[in-house]
Amino acid sequence: MIGVVLVGATGSIGRSTLDVVRALGPEARLVGAFAGRNASGLAPIAREFQAKYLGVEDEAALNELRGGLGGAKCGGLGLLEEAIADPATNVVVSAAPGAAGLPASLAAVRHGRRLALANKESMVMAGPLLLREAARTGAAIVPVDSEHSAIFQALQAGRRGEVRRVILTASGGPFRTWSAERIARAKPEDALRHPTWSMGRKITIDSATLMNKALELVEAHWLFGLDADVLVHPQSIVHGMVEFVDGSVVAQMGKPDMRLPILYALSYPERRGPAFAPLELKDFASLTFEPPDRARFPGLALGEEAVRLGGTAGAVLNAANEVAVGRFLAGEIAFPAIAETAGAVLRNAAIRPDPNLDDIQAADRAAREDARTWLT
Fold first, then answer.
1. Is 285 inside any structural domain?
2. Residue 228 forms part of a structural domain
3. Torsions phi, psi of 327, nearest 5?
4. Which of 64, 192, 205, 311 could connect to 353 by a Cys-Cys bridge, CB 3.0–4.6 Å?
């Protein structure tokens, strides 16, 4: 039995995870479901899956729904620790967006549960801390990001010492073919029109700036102990590749459907059906690859800089980017100001090596304040 605690249950990854739990049938059970502010979105989940635990940030909002939530134990996000510690739980899907996802990720590994990591910011902010805790408890960390899931799977084709390099693919986002001048005038509605993926608003903006790929470079560095290259692949069929020392390249391929890496993470180390969105290569006339245009997408280099700096640099980059993306979505700044803000804050930050959780949280707070000051 796969016992799942789902954090970020009402978001895009949450909905895909529920699809997978449905498809697994009696092999899986939703033990707990947690959302940020969308208490009403938990009601249908509670009725369908009979989850034992339900939690949101605003406990009062959940109280209004208690009559329609069956026998679930309801509360604030403080209930999350209890749900993860429940003996019925063996997998935690960490899918809350942004820095808010870190507590769930840490709690999962501290309790020795398998962490199905969809919240890349957890690894970007606190990679060494998560890995230390996982080593202490024996928890497995299985990435759900399609690119890192691809690398995770492809690495199993050989020994770590046989790897020459890893390659993350990027769709290129909605502005792949736009000129720099046109990108500078882009509005939020333009940036939210992703050509291949259906995702939440924040990550869709990150895809448009290629900041998602910058953060993924940091994530890959900590997850795999390897630095990655990036190739733009507009079809989003090849999600990642590993090149070995003999010249062989092992790629993981699949349609752009997040249920595929979620199913793998829930089933790991086995592979289970059903086959979501089977890939028919004959349906694709060509698969193309091109280097990213760093002049039009300067955010990519910030991920490489954060890897070089180490320590709290990932937390700083993530926090500054979150503030800037929020301002852009509110229509308060121009699109290029997202990368400009993140870069300025990262350059001016005092990076602490080998940080503990207090250091990471302090760096996050300071970077957010610096970003707000910069934008002002």
1. no
2. yes
3. -65, -40
4. 311
